[in-house]
Each structure stands twice: as C-alpha cells, then as structure tokens.
Amino acid sequence: MRPLVKIELSEDRLFPVDAGTRKIARSLYERVADLPIISPHGHVSPVLLLDDRPFADPAELFIRHDHYVTRVMHSMGVDFSRLGIPDRRGGDEPASPREAWKTFCEHWHAYAGTASGYWLTDVFVRLFGIDEAPCADNADMLFDTIQQALQQTSFRPRALFDRFNIEVLATTDDPLDTLIPHRALAQDQSFKGRVIPTFRPDAYLDPMAEGWRERVFALLDASDATGTDYLAYIDALEVQRQRFIEMGAVSADHGVRQPLTVEMGRMEAAALFDAGMKGKLDKKDAVRFAGHMLMEMARMSVQDGLVMTIHPGVYRNHHNETLEHYGRDMGHDIPVRTRFAQSLRPLLERYGTAAGFHLVLFTVDETNFSREIAPLAGCYPSVYIGAPWWFLDAPDAVQRFRSAVTETAGFYKSSGFIDDTRAFLSIPARHDMSRRLDASFLARLVGEGRLPRAMAERVMIDLVDTMPRKVFKL
C-alpha cells in the first residue's frame, strides 16, 4: 500500500513565486474573485438544468463525458470500456461506475501537471472537501463520499448554477435543434439564470461533411422553403439564425479545419450547390463552396448581429476505429497548423470594418497568436482574439498567450475567458484559473514598472467582466 498523498489548494496558487509580485497579484485577483461567471461558449446541455436531476454517480459526472479526462487514460493504454463507455459495435461489456472510478483513481498520477489535474483537484477540494489524492486504496471511499454528496439538494444542477454565480451560460446547438429546453428555462420563473443557444451550422455548410445532402433537405423542410435550390438554402439558414436570435442567441460558431473564405458570385455558388446536391461535386469545388459559405455566414452576421466565432485547426476523429466503436468527442482530435491572414483576407476585405460586426478568432496553434491573430486584431475593428482554447487552456499556455498578444493588440481586443467545457462542475475552476493567471500577468507588468497599479486594476475587471459583455454583445 502506497502512503496516501494529501491534496490542498493554496490561496496563492498560480501567483508569482516572488513575494512582492505575488502580493500585487493577490490584490488584483481579489477585485474579481467574486464577480459573476460569463460563459459565452460551452457544451453543457440545457437539459441538465431543465430537468435538474441529481447527477448519477462520480464516474458519470467526472469521466464518461469528459474527453479531457478520458484521453489521458486512453493514452496510458486504458480501453474505453474500462471507463464505462459502451462500444457501439459490440465488444467488451462496459465497466460499472465504481469499476470505472477505480480505474481513474489508479491513474491519477497521469494527471500530474495537466490542466485537467488542476481543475479536478479544485473541484474535489472546494466542492467535496476531499483532501486525499485519488488512488487505488481510497477509490471506494472517494466514490462513496462523492455519491453521498450528489444526493443532496445542494448538489443539484440548478443549485450549483447559483452557487457558481453563473450569470450567462451559452450552449452549442445544431441549427435544427428544437430549442425547447432553452424556451422552457426562459419561461421558468423558479430559474433565474440565463441560458442561451449558439448557432453551430458546420454540418450544413460543408458538402464533404457526412450526411450533408440529407441535412440540407431537413433544413429546407424545417424552414418551410418553397424550393430546393441555392437561394432557398440561403433563406433557410437565415430563417434558422433568426429563430436562434429570438431565443436569445448572441453568436454563431464555426468549427472548421481551416478558416478558408472564398468570394464567388451567386451563379457560381448556385451551380456548385446543385452539383453537391446531386453528388457530383469534386473535392476542390467542395472546399471552395465551404469557403464561400463561411463568407455567407459573415454576411449574415453583419446583417443580423450574431457574433461570428471561428474555432479552426483541429483534425477531428483522428483514429477511425475509435470513431466507429465509441463515436465522436472521445479525445482523438489533434491540433494542426492553421493560417488566418491569407485565408480570411476575402472576408476581412469585405466585412473587416463593417459596423457592429464582431469576429472572434480562436486557435490551437499558439504560434498564430503573435504571428497572425494579434496583428489582425490590432488592425481590423471587427476582429477579437479568442481565449486560449482546448490544448492551450492550461496555466503556462495562458501566460504565453498573454505575452504573445498583448504587446501587439493590447488587452482590449481579447474575448474574455472561454471555458469551452462539457464538464459542468469544472466551470468555476476554469474561470478562477483564468482570473488568477491574468492577475499574475498584470502583477508582473506593475512590478516591472510597465503598467500603473491603477490601470492594472481597471484592466483586471475589464478582462473578466467588461470585455466578454462587449465582445459577445451581452
């Protein structure tokens, strides 16, 4: 039996090591520590809050649906079935929740130094009062401790929503989603939070996407289109965007491999659309059509006011066998090199200075922050710098991000923090991490005589509160 390792949260975690700068960071952080959480991009289901049911068990809550967590264990050779995830094509029986939790505890050491390990520690300590690092010997005790807490009314989703001080929570939704849960929450007088949808049309814009033709027909049908041609398709997308706006949506999100934009005339676009609907569009023209549709999404954002966010640069579902057996979002997504300046020039030439247009650029290619994204944001009024996302949302990467973009674009062209999470309980941990890191960065500038203390105090509040409200028009 290994000796149990104690875990704790230092009050000065993530602050600078030297005492003087740490004191400044602590003071800056205290100004924003209790401000409401604004989460304008994430993947928590609204049904979670609508139904307000107790979380099932620790494995369901922390493991099964969080690819940040499962990918670490899978990379260590753990089969997904051991994590309680069913094989869609048969195979091994999935482990029980308690067995999956024990496997997680046995691999806790693998999370050392990772962002996931930091967030999980925050949740374990602050929400459940756990002071022992998970391991094989205490797995059952920890499972029972968390399970007992989950049965309490104070651990229901709505109670936690209030406890976390979440003011706005955006979900990510298919254009044909009914939005019934959003409507029900908006009409529920007992729920005081604001949960808004986000328009995510990728699968309807790219002819190479699986099932694109069938989705387009469904889109046309749901929008009461009078035809099946290109103009009807464009009208249908506009109809669905308006439906989202009526339900409180503030943004349209685009998860493309590369942010290619192509300007083409209506006749050419119509011809490519017709060819795609007949299954006769080659790959080159399919790429061009998808690039044209990204341009169309920008045009629509200029007209209807939805903020346009682009999350590019990820090779999705890199391992086909995992996709076939366990489905999407299992952690087999890999960052690839991304180009913005050339790819987005057609869009920015036309809409980069359009009044009211907001374009938020994210990347998992951190060389882009200083090379392309910050210079673009420092030039075009419409462009804002998306927070470090996914593979970059870790403490050191966040600090590198601030260093990379601030000297070119300043603090006031950034989006504010984006948690981008499916793990509901990790939301406050992620936002708290960001606030501490921004306080640390600003404290260094103050300590180096590069920023007056009073200005740092203003910037600190604006990064947490003012900027996300402004960028996402909240």
Can you tell me the overall shape?
globular
Report the span from N to C terminus: 53 Å
> What is the CATH class of the largest domain?
Alpha Beta
Largest sheet: 4 strands, parallel
User: Could you say how many structural domains there are in total?
Assistant: 2
Helices and strands, in N-to-C order? HEHHHHHHHEHEHHHEHHEEHEHEHEHHH
CATH topology of the largest domain: TIM Barrel
Strand content: 5-15%
Number of helices: 20
CATH homologous superfamily (4th level) name of the largest domain: Metal-dependent hydrolases
Task: List low-confidence stretches.
Answer: none
Number of strands: 9
Layout of helices and strands:
Elements: H1 19-30, E1 37-39, H2 46-51, H3 58-64, H4 67-75, H5 97-106, H6 115-128, H7 139-150, H8 157-163, E2 166-170, H9 180-187, E3 194-196, H10 202-205, H11 212-222, H12 230-246, E4 251-254, H13 266-277, H14 283-304, E5 307-310, E6 314-315, H15 320-326, E7 334-335, H16 345-351, E8 359-361, H17 367-377, E9 383-385, H18 395-409, H19 427-447, H20 453-471
Parallel strand pairs: 1-2, 2-3, 4-5, 5-8, 8-9
Antiparallel strand pairs: 6-7
Question: What does this protein structure show overall?
Answer:
49% of the residues lie in helices and 6% in strands. With 474 residues, it is α/β, with parallel strands linked by helices. The protein has 2 domains: 19-53 and 156-471, TIM Barrel (Alpha-Beta Barrel), CATH 3.20.20.140; 54-155, uronate isomerase, domain 2, chain A (Orthogonal Bundle). The strands form 3 sheets. The protein has a 4-stranded parallel beta sheet, with helices on one face. It has a 3-stranded parallel beta sheet with strand order 1-2-3. The longest helix has 22 residues, at 283-304. The model has no long low-confidence stretch (mean pLDDT 94).
